[in-house]
Design brief:
Layout: E1 3-8, E2 13-17, H1 28-39, E3 43-47, E4 56-59, H2 61-67, H3 89-100, E5 105-112, E6 118-129, E7 135-144, H4 146-186, H5 192-210, H6 223-230, E8 240-244, H7 251-270, E9 280-289, E10 296-305, H8 319-330, E11 334-340, E12 343-351
Helix pairs in contact: 4-5, 4-7, 5-6, 5-7, 7-8
InterPro entries: HATPase_C_sf, PAC, PAS, PAS-assoc_C, PAS-like_dom_sf, Sig_transdc_His_kinase_HWE
EC number: 2.7.13.3
Catalytic activity: ATP + protein L-histidine = ADP + protein N-phospho-L-histidine
């Protein structure tokens, strides 16, 4: 049996003796080859391109450690046994095209070890030729890049968070600008700066409470946000009753709801239920659809009970109420206030940008 030198496309040679790479390579060069393959940390395989199923005919120790299989469980099989339910068929097809075209390619695959554990595998394959230019093997190397893949995911998540926070902040400053402009036109009170600051703090509480929900898919439970918004206006937790399910909130609706509930709560402290020790506020919400509309609608009901008797003209709205009414109207929403002997009931409808 004569010694052969196998050339890859880079011009380097892998020396071995004999025709069967699945057995030990006889000869001094074969010993060196096996020792080199045993020492390298990169998993290496050779497959037979002349067999229709491209079976593996050589694997090194690093490949056995990477996959958890024994050598006798691998040799003679196509490398597809590492694939599983999460493996991308398009990535597998890219490998298949490279083998068919005698091309060199690097593809990241989700593969599975013998124990079922998934790992991201950077697979590099390419042809190895005889000195006469005929194809001899398909060389393969594998590298566990699970940590690298996770780092990329974290980086994408960080970029998503950065964009979301930037969007929220731009939206918040736009709302603040609207508050300042409208208050400047409607308010004659000397405490204009205090009013602005109170509304800005309400916005901050709302966005802080919902920041952790920004990256969840689908509906989220806004109970904590509503508690953060209304809770500071009463020292008695029993004065606030929250009832509602998960809804789909966007940053614009968060800002509008923050200002609306802030105005309702401050008015309740000044004139309504929260000005009395026996006063109670119930806030309920649900998602629905308006008649003939496909866009989802958030409907909230604010109900005050146990407050002092009504005095004066409750229909006369202050500057804050005008702001919330205009902001809701600009977003396609509405607020309906109804006063009776029991107290105020406010119904809010706000289209959601989902």
């Amino acid at each position: 049996m004569t010694e052969q030198k196998l050339h890859n496309q880079a011009g380097r040679t892998v020396e071995h003796s004999g025709d069967n790479a699945g057995t030990a390579f006889p000869g001094a060069s074969g010993v060196l080859f096996e020792q080199a393959m045993a020492q390298t940390r990169m998993a290496v395989t050779l497959s037979d391109p002349h067999d229709p199923d491209h079976p593996l005919v050589f694997v090194n120790r690093a490949f056995l450690e990477l996959t958890g299989y024994d050598e006798d469980e691998i040799l003679g099989r196509n490398c597809r046994f590492l694939q599983g339910p999460g493996t991308d068929p398009e990535a597998v097809a890219r490998l298949g095209r490279a083998v068919r075209d005698n091309d060199v390619v690097v593809v990241e695959l989700l593969n599975y070890r013998k124990n079922g554990a998934a790992f991201w595998n950077a697979v590099h394959i390419g042809p190895i030729y005889h000195e006469d230019g005929t194809l001899r093997y398909i060389f393969g190397s594998q590298w566990d890049v699970t940590d690298v893949h996770a780092a990329r995911s974290e980086e994408r998540h960080a970029r998503l968070m950065e964009r979301e926070i930037s969007h929220r902040m731009k939206n918040m400053f736009a709302v603040i600008s609207s508050i300042v402009n409208m208050l400047g036109k409607t308010s004659t009170e000397p405490a204009l700066g205090r009013d602005i600051n109170e509304r800005i703090r309400a916005l901050g509480r709302a966005h802080e409470a919902t920041l952790q929900l920004s990256f969840q898919q689908g509906r989220v439970d806004p109970t904590q946000m509503f508690r953060e918004l209304v809770g500071p206006y009463t020292s008695d937790p029993r004065a606030l009753d929250l009832d509602g399910g998960a809804v789909q909130l966007d940053s614009n609706s968060v800002s509008i709801l923050a200002l609306t509930l802030h105005e309702l709560a401050t008015n309740a402290v000044k004139h309504g239920a929260l000005s009395s020790k026996r006063g109670r506020v119930a806030l309920s919400w649900r998602m629905c659809r308006a008649d003939g509309q496909d866009q989802p609608l958030l409907r909230l009901t604010w109900t005050e009970r146990g407050g002092p008797p009504l005095h004066g003209d409750p229909e006369r709205l202050g500057a804050g109420s005008e702001i919330t009414t205009r902001m809701l109207r600009a977003a396609g929403g509405v607020i309906r206030r109804r006063w009776d002997t029991a107290g105020l009931t406010a119904e809010i409808e706000l289209p959601l940008q989902c």
